[in-house]
Structure formats: C-alpha cells, structure tokens
Amino acid sequence: DNGIVRPKGYNVSWHVNPEIEKHHFGNSHPMKPWRLTLSKGLIMSYGMHIAMDTYLSRQATEEEMRDFHSEDYLEYLRTAKVAMPDDETPKPYNLGGSDCPIFEGLFNYCSMYSGASIDAARKLCNNEADIAINWSGGLHHAKKAEASGFCYANDIVLAILQLLRKYPRVLYIDIDVHHGDGVEEAFWSSDRVLTLSIHKYDGMNFFPGTGDLDRTGPDDEANPGAHHSINVPLSDGIDDEQYIWLFKTIVGKCVERFRPSAIVLQCGADSLAGDRLGRFNVQVQGHGACVAYCKSLKIPLLLVGGGGYTPRNVARAWAHETSIAIGCDANIDPIIPQHTPYRSHFRHETLFPTLEQILGDPRPNKNSPKKISDIVQSITEQLRFVNA
Ligand code: ZLM
Ligand code: CA
Ligand code: ZN
Q1: Which ligand is nearest to the CA of 149?
Q2: For residue range 298-357, what is the model confidence (pLDDT) as tens digits?
Q3: Residue 53 falls within a domain, yes or no?
Q4: 139: domain range?
C-alpha cells in the first residue's frame, strides 16, 4: 500500500500527452517542455495516476482556437517555417525572437496544450470531474494575434470560454511570478470573469511590465469589466507566510463578493524559490497551500501549469499539487521514490531528496508588512464594486 486511493465522492481528471513534452524551444531556452516528463514521472512513481481519470489530450481544432485567436495568426502559426540559423528577417506576430522562437512542430505543440485545457474545462462542465488538471497549459501571455513570453496560444482563455458556456461566473487566479496579462486583457471588459494575478512587479524592469495595483479594469464605470481585474504587485523574496496569508485573504474576499461558479488556477511554478527566472522565496508547501485553499472552496476547479524554469522544482510542486487534488498529500512518502524515472536528477541534490525541500538560496524579503497590508486594503475597497 503506497497510501494512494481513489478519492470517494469526487473525481480528478488528468490531461496528458507525451507528444507535448518532446518539443524543444532551442538550446538553453529557459522553457523546457521536458519538465512535464519529469513531473509525470514523479506523479506516476507515487502511483497517483490510479486515483485519477487519465486522458490522452488531443489537438484543439482550428475552429476551437478561433474562439479567441484570429484566423490570420493561427494560419501563420500553422505554416511558419523554422528559420535558417543566420536568418534574421523580422517575423510578424512577435514570433521568431529569442522569447518566442519558431521551432519544429510549433503548431502541434500549441494545439495539443490548448486541446488539453479545453478538454479539462469540458470535464468540469459535464460534471465528469470536480478538479481537472493540465500541467502542460497555463500559457497566460498569448494574445488574440500575438505571441508573447514563451506563450503562443492562450489555452487559459480558451478554457474559460468553454466554462462560460455553462457557468455564469469564472474566477481566474494566477500564481505564476509573471503578470497574467493575456488573460486579463481577454476579459478586460467582462464582468463574468474576475481575474486575479499575483506577481513580481517592477515597472518595465520585470516582464511583462504590467499589473500594477491600480490597473483594476476599464476606467469607464459603465463598462461591465470595471473593477474586475485584480493585481497584486510584489517585490523580491516574498516568503510562504506572507504569500499564503495574502492568497487566502484576497481569494476569500473575491469568492465572497463574486460568488464564482468555477475557478481556474494557473499554478506557474516560477514563483518558487530557486527558480531560474523567478524572484520569490515561496516553497512547495506555500505554493501547494494555494491549491489546497481553492480545493477547500468546493467549486469546480481547473488547474493549469505555466512558468517554471528549474525543472526539478516544477516537478516537485506539480506532483505535490496533484496529491493535494486527489487528497493523498498527507499519506505519501516525503522521500522521492527510489524507482522514479530520472531519480538521478534529484540525487544530484542530496542522498534522500524529498518532494517538498527545494534547493535554491533564500532571497532577502523586500516586501514590508505595511506593503502587504496596503495591498489587501486597496483590493478590499476595489471588491466593494464587485457583485455576484
Ligand atoms: N530577451 N535563451 C515568462 C516569459 C518571460 C523580454 C528580455 C531574451 C527571458 C529569457 C531565451 C537562449 C511565463 C523579456 C529577454 C534573452 C527580450 C524573459 C533564449 C534567457 C533566454 O537564454 C535564453 C538563447 C531566453 C529568454 C532568458 N525572457 C527571461 N525573461 C521574458 C519573458 C513566461 O512564465 O509567465 C509563462 C510561461 N522576456 O524580459 C526581453 C524583454 C528578450
Ligand atoms: Ca501571476
Ligand atoms: Zn512566469
């Protein structure tokens, strides 16, 4: 008995496809789809798959992707050719630079992770799942007709559009270290989606440069989207204690005011300590506490991935969060199983690597208690304008 049993009374669906994991953004690009292979290996070595309904994700159709993306952009994505090494001709739609390279199988990659998020949303709509998981999704920067920040198609927007067919209101929560600008922009003028992103903010010094506290929605009060964008701009080094308190306080208030009928949680793992691109000091424990809190609300929940640039830590967080979804987090062995594939990656760290202990130097916490309480006060005032 490894402590994993199928939860009684609810279903977790897990949407995976090994095809997605095989794509390469290019040498030394921080985004490594292979981290999904490592995560899946860890999840399966604990036996967690027996407690979920596992689905092989399929490609989204172009028609499904047109729910958000423009036809011309999709056409370009589908037919774009990998450039010759010294070809520097400018490409449209922000493609072909170092952040969003055109690589082999690009459209296949985009349609696969989008299909997985759409399918996961439909499982919730059909009451076939209470929690649906797509760790390959969460690509929150993509715009209607533009690639941005390693994101080409916005699977989150596509999934939320599916949820809106059934559910009157969707709460979107984004714990990636970067601002969830693409999702915010897509629903900027809607009062049916409340977007909440927690991120590092330092003006133009940190990507994408948006997401300040006062960006709460359209300024025009007559626009239904007014007050329906919530931003939590943070400085380097925030720790578990502050992060969990902020998360529970703000999400609690959002749920109380907005009464969402479904929640989408983007679980970008670049908010963890030790991330190659991130700046926070959040531990697997604190990151997972956000998932546990959302689960405790007993509202249909879609979990998607996102950023995460230290693959071992990404795998730890998403395996831990899968165990929370199933409800076996208290039962599993804290030490990573001997028989996990790629155990050598973890053994590089210590002799008995654990699921929750990540490596990485602690960063000094630049978030004062006053800064944190000012943010909560401002958002509390904003939420007075939000009604179910
Ligand atoms: N340069 N190689 C988060 C998306 C963050 C824009 C500054 C590119 C990188 C980064 C790419 C191998 C999510 C920017 C950066 C250097 C213009 C960003 C390729 C290193 C490399 O070594 C690298 C040659 C590359 C890109 C670092 N890019 C770090 N930060 C951000 C985008 C995506 O986590 O939120 C969701 C998945 N871009 O800061 C520049 C302004 C491009
Ligand atoms: Ca975020
Ligand atoms: Zn990120």
Answers
A1: 1
A2: 999 999 999 999 999 999 999 999 999 999 999 999 999 988 888 888 988 888 999 999
A3: yes
A4: 12-383
Q: Is residue 2 part of a domain?
A: no
344 lines ligand 1 (CB under 6 A): no
Atom number of ligand 1 nearest to Cα 268: 34
- The span from the CA of 179 to the CA of 167, in Å, is 25
DSSP annotation of 270:
G
What is the token pair recorded at 81?
Answer: 């050719």
- CATH code of the domain covering residue 66: 3.40.800.20
| 37 within 8 A of 157, measured Cβ to Cβ | no
Residue 178 CB–ligand 1 contact under 6 Å: yes
In a domain, 1, yes or no: no
- In the numeric block, the tokens 């499982």 are attached to 123
Please indicate, yes or no, if residue 3 is contained in any of the structural domains. no
Q: What is the pTM of this model?
A: 0.98
- CA-to-CA distance for 175 and 196, rounded, in angstroms? 9
The string of pLDDT tens digits covering residues 130-161 is 999 999 999 999 999 999 999 999 999 999 99
Q: Which atom of ligand 1 sits closest to the CA of residue 307? A: 34
Q: For residue 232, give the amino acid letter.
A: V
Residue nearest (by alpha carbon) to ligand 1 atom 32: 149
Question: Which residue has the least CA distance to atom 13 on ligand 1?
Answer: 307
Q: What 3-state DSSP class applies to 89?
A: coil
Among 15, 69, 141, 179, the active-site one is: 179
Q: Atom 9 in ligand 1: which residue has the minimum CA distance?
A: 99
Tokens of 212: 């300040």
What ipTM does this complex have? Answer: 0.99
- Please tell me the predicted confidence (pLDDT) of residue 325: 98
Residue 179 annotated in active site: yes
Q: How confident is the model at residue 97 (pLDDT cuts 50, 70, 90)?
A: very high
Ligand 2 center to 243 CA (angstroms):
12
| Domains: count for the chain | 1
